[in-house]
Design goal:
189 residues, mainly beta, five-stranded antiparallel sheet, 2 helices
């Protein structure tokens, strides 16, 4: 499967004559239905949901999840990643394949979710479809890093603020150049 995806992407690159840019898009699914966001906000039932990522190629993202809106509002207003509160601390590494079906939330640090191949990723499910890599991360639990508490989605009281950023390395290892960002505020019914 990995070889078919690579060959498909290579063929597209050759035909178009331009390199494929690293790109992503995130959607939310609950009860088997895609939930549309409006202006970066949506409302979910207080039960498990899926974050579904569409990648143009194997790649990684930084994701800040928080119950505080600081990073979300800053990202919404175009503040550079280097000044976003939720991206200032060292990134948090989740388990491969998301066995706990969770997201880590922190006011200061991002998660690092990636897809390298079928054996090395941080998602519950992955598949190749129409020249894209579709990765699904199921969220049943929210682990609050600051309070060291695990919260079932059913018990969440506050909105969940999410900021997703793709980047590439600059000329030095520490330099990160932002490629794209998406924001999402999840309200609860």
């Amino acid at each position: 499967m990995k070889h078919i995806l690579f060959l498909t992407l290579a063929l597209i690159t050759l035909i178009s004559g331009t390199p494929i840019e690293k790109d992503f898009h995130v959607t939310v699914e609950q009860n088997g239905k895609t939930i549309q966001s409006k202006n970066g906000e949506l409302t979910l039932e207080r039960k498990s949901f899926n974050l579904i990522f569409e990648f143009s190629e194997p790649m990684g993202l930084l994701i800040n999840g928080s119950f505080e809106n600081n990073t979300y509002e800053m990202a919404k207003n175009g503040i550079p990643k280097t000044r976003l509160k939720g991206f200032l601390a060292t990134g948090m590494a989740d388990e491969l394949f998301n066995p706990s079906k969770e997201i880590l939330v922190s006011n200061d640090a991002p998660n690092y979710w990636f897809y390298d191949n079928e054996r090395d990723h941080r998602f519950n499910k992955t598949k190749a479809e129409h020249g894209k890599i579709i990765c699904t991360r199921t969220i049943e639990n929210i682990y609050n890093v600051e309070s060291k508490t695990n919260i079932k989605v059913e018990k969440v009281k506050k909105p969940l603020y999410l900021v997703f950023i793709s980047y590439k390395r600059g000329t030095s290892f520490t330099e990160e150049i932002e490629l794209k960002r998406e924001i999402l505020k999840i309200n609860w019914k």
